[in-house]
Design a protein that fits this description.
about 200 residues, mainly beta, four-stranded mixed β-sheet
Length: about 200
């Protein structure tokens, strides 16, 4: 077997009559064969954590990430795909989470043996932290309206609504954000709500 790099291989052919006897013709040739070095690409093509967003967003060059999940999430699946089809990857899979920081390392080995590690720290919030986060999310939701303790959302698409006579579609400001509404152009501006 030829080694990595370039090798010269000589081939000699001789032709003899079928019945034996003298060689009637011969030829030789030299062929240069190049065998490339194994790939050293130890990058991931993608990295995901079920039910969470990576921060920062995935980039093959970035090796450290964080993700946050609510208290109710006690298990996640880490999915990773290698950039080089000949590379291998260990560390992806399904993991149980404890409250607090849970660090997982995904290591890619290139065909050349080069290695690269990606680390994901998944923070599982406490019940109190989760409750505070939910309240922040609710306060930031420009379509959430609570009536009598029941959540409703302002409809963002009125294409399936038959507007009352004299009303036209418009927008209005609610919670410092713009939402879809209808107006009679004079007294009333209304929003359609859907109950959760």
């Amino acid at each position: 077997a030829a080694a990595q790099g370039s090798s010269n291989i000589s081939v000699t052919a001789q032709i003899a009559p079928k019945t034996g006897g003298k060689v009637s013709a011969s030829a030789s040739s030299t062929v240069k064969v190049s065998i490339p070095a194994p790939s050293s690409n130890a990058n991931l093509a993608s990295l995901k954590v079920s039910g969470a967003e990576l921060s920062p967003a995935f980039s093959a060059k970035t090796t450290n990430y964080t993700a946050t999940v609510k208290y109710a999430v006690d298990k996640v699946t880490i999915s990773a795909n290698v950039a080089d089809g000949g590379a291998t990857c260990v560390g992806a899979g399904t993991y149980d989470l404890q409250v607090g920081d849970n660090s997982r390392t995904i290591t890619v080995t290139a065909p050349s043996g080069a290695k690269k590690s990606y680390t994901v720290v998944i923070k599982r919030l406490t019940e109190e932290e989760t409750a505070a986060l939910i309240e922040q999310e609710r306060a930031a939701d420009p379509t959430l309206v609570v009536i009598g303790g029941i959540d409703h959302h302002i409809k963002t698409d009125l294409s399936d609504v038959a507007l009352p006579e004299g009303f036209t579609a418009t927008t209005t400001v609610y919670k410092e954000g713009e939402v879809v509404a209808i107006t009679d152009g004079a007294e009333y501006t209304l929003c359609y709500l859907s109950a959760d």
